[in-house]
């Protein structure tokens, strides 16, 4: 499938799949979307509701590791919040190429050039092994299909960032969200850019308490589910 690195409305890059007319991130702003959906309404929300002491560990599961943008921003934000992050990214398809990584401008746009080596390391570390990139941030990239996730009560936050239901409807079913619900700890949260009624109903059907929230630029709403 053809792939091309393009610039989104906020100046940050993403990967576009012309055959699907689909992007890895919003064309209205890759970084803006990541911050709004996964950091503001995911990590920061969980922090405000559940974290009591400095240095607590937060376990995060990302569904669709993709370009590593969500992981990189989480690394930057966790440092500010003084959290220890155990990050797992699941991706079934071939990872982004070395050339694509070179063209992604996240460190520059985030004014985090001094941490560009961390962004590179997110992609360079071997799959299916846990790696401590810093004393407070570890990552394990797992190459498998989402339906193969068997974790139970393992994660505090799930970033559900799969390709949209228009192109991969099988990723947005009750069966998949049941797997997500099992993987979350009690009081854990799942956040996603999606807002379709069918997605909300699938989440509710497996037990999530679901909120409609203001969406990122270009989207009216997004969803957050709590266990």
Automatic annotation (TrEMBL):
Per the UniProt record, which residue ranges are transmembrane? none
Q: Which InterPro entries match?
A: MnmC-like_methylTransf (IPR008471), SAM-dependent_MTases_sf (IPR029063), tRNA_MNMC2 (IPR047785)
Stretches assigned to the MnmC-like methyltransferase domain: 143-227
The protein's GO terms of the molecular function aspect are: oxidoreductase activity, acting on the CH-NH group of donors; tRNA (5-methylaminomethyl-2-thiouridylate)(34)-methyltransferase activity
The cross-references to Gene3D superfamilies, in alphabetical order and at most eight, read: Vaccinia Virus protein VP39 (3.40.50.150)
The highest taxon in the source lineage is Bacteria
Q: What is this protein called?
A: Putative peptidase
**Organism expressing this protein natively:** Algibacter lectus
